[in-house]
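Our preliminary data section would be incomplete without showing what the modeling component actually yields. Below, a chain of 106 amino acids is followed by its predicted structure, encoded as tokens that our downstream tools consume directly.
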Amino acid sequence: MASSSARARSLYRSILRELPQRPLSTPSLIQQRVRSTIVAQPQADAPSQMDQAEQYIQYAKSQRMYTTLLERYNPGMSMDEEERVRLTARRVGMDLPDEFISGNKA
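Predicted structure:
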């Protein structure tokens, strides 16, 4: 029983680490739901629910890592077209000419 409650507590903490950070004084609805599910789970179904929780944690970690790698290796994804063109020109050793801004030379 102690081992089961320690495992459940560990899984709960792992799930909270993967969720967006919020102060503990105002937990989100999903945090409240996870806590109530872990506290009130029936003993017969506990191992399968814990296995599902571990799978969810692995999935959430993988998704976070995927997003991190995507942002790291595709930095132009969130740039607008002008910025992407300017950085591409700089990469090959060219500078874009200054453009006219509101009738005056920039």
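The chain has a mean pLDDT of 79. Strands lie at 100-101, 104-105. Preliminary results of this kind motivate Aim 1 of the renewal.
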